[in-house]
UniProtKB/TrEMBL annotation:
GO terms for molecular function: metal ion binding; monooxygenase activity. Heme binds at residue 431. Belongs to the cytochrome P450 family. PROSITE patterns: CYTOCHROME_P450. It comes from Urochloa decumbens. Keywords: Heme, Iron, Metal-binding, Monooxygenase, Oxidoreductase, Signal. This is Cytochrome P450. The keyword Transmembrane does not apply. Its cofactor is heme. InterPro entries: Cyt_P450, Cyt_P450_CS, Cyt_P450_E_grp-I, Cyt_P450_sf, Plant_Cytochrome_P450_Monoox. SUPFAM superfamilies: Cytochrome P450. It holds the Pfam family p450. Gene3D superfamilies: Cytochrome P450. It comes from the Eukaryota.
Amino acid sequence: RRNGKNSKHQPPPGPLAVPVLGHLHLLEKPFHHSLARLAARYGPVFSLRLGSRDAVVVSSAEHARECLTEHDVTFASRPHFPTMSLMTYGGTTVGNCRYGPWWRLLRRVSAEHLLSPRRVSAMQPAVAAEVRAMVRRVCRAAAAAPGGAARVQLRRRLFEVSLSALMETVARTKTSRAEDDADTDMSPEAREFKESMDVLMPLLGAANTWDYVPMLRWFDVFGVKRKIAAAVSTRDALFRRLIDTERRRMLDGGDVTGSEEENTSMIAVLLSLQKSEPETYSDNLIMSMCYSMFAAGTETTAGTTEWAMSLLLNHPNVLKKAQAEMDASVGTSRLVTPDDVARLGYLQRILHETLRLYPAVPLMVPHESTADCTVGGHYVPSGTLLIVNAYAIHRDPVAWEDPAAFRPERFEDGSAEGRLLLPFGMGRRRCPGDTLALRTLGLVIGTLIQCFDWDTVGGADNVDMAEGVGITLPRAVPLEAMCRPRQAMLDVLQKL
Ligand code: HEM
């Protein structure tokens, strides 16, 4: 039927739907695996009915390209989900809002003013300070451990460093850093944000079915909506305080220019735009930007570092090769810097291979069409959700030899050229934070492999690589590892 004469007028194939739920009952978590199984049966372009919404699921590089290049504008919108709207100022954030002038404004602000390569370079000292603080804490733990090797809760450490780095680039909460013996170095503001997300995320998960089955919304199931509203107002009170603090700091210290640039937070950049165009760059827009940066940047970065370290623990030969590259290129008399990271080719390949195997947003973010079109020769009407299974595309055996194997060498000499990798999405809704993400990932992983030797806990052969459930591809089991400062780096580490 897919290649039938009239397929232009036929919807893509798909399973039989039941009333009310459509195909929701067929979807098991994690969804990317469930959707890959359906693709094996119905093909690389198939349709689903998710409660009251029609969706098309694309699982091949060819059709992802078709949707996000040829039909880029048609699929440039986002669906509105009532639960999500409660958290995203009525669905008006850059990642959630519909395609149109408002999105164009927010996108320009994020891509040009907040996340441009120049701004990302200016943020590096703040990111590096957070990474150094993490290394100091891990060293302290190792020094106190019997035999000099500490058991490190890597998930927690990597989450904290990712959130803290982002907090410093968004708001500069640690302008007067006072290093103490605390086991965590998150600022009170970072901790507060984490607490608000810890409340919100499970509620969001619980309320998710509403988005597809409107009938359930009539009953504000278990008062979830009220709880979400309360958690959102706590979160927004924090953002307001961050904005007020930065505004006061700017009044005291003047504008954001010249040499100040390096130490400038995203909120300060937005406040200086506000000065010239107060109506456009309102406090509400600034709050929405703060939320977008944290929501899009924290779990994705933290999760990718956790998968990268898991893969390195299971492939000690890759870890050794990366350490050898580091020693040859950076040496052992100083810490790796943000500028070194781009020159470390093997480290970069490790990051690409990690993002291929474990793209942090495996189904990307749903797109929505605003006009009728055809995909793979099938008719897709306006208003259809587009779900791209990046995870399945990255492991397609037709494109990738031995696709499940972790082999950074596959990116050597441009041999992976032409193969589609879309951990950051594609087209006009592509992730504007990719430069910041890759630089942070490189610095975190690079520093951890330069400073420490790593081993599995209890001498286990392998780290368990089971996937958990969640939008950002979490590991099922939080990663822990044994870590020992590298002999050759002891001098540098002692001076940190
Ligand atoms: C490893 C880290 C990251 C990964 C894998 C990732 C991946 C993605 C993906 C797949 C999308 C959806 C693209 C699409 O719909 O086509 C996205 C959107 C977005 N990301 Fe990222 N991201 C990461 C880090 C970041 C960071 C650090 C920031 C900013 C601080 C950020 C900001 C955004 C924003 C604002 C959007 C929405 C774009 C729009 O709808 O126009 N991301 N990201």
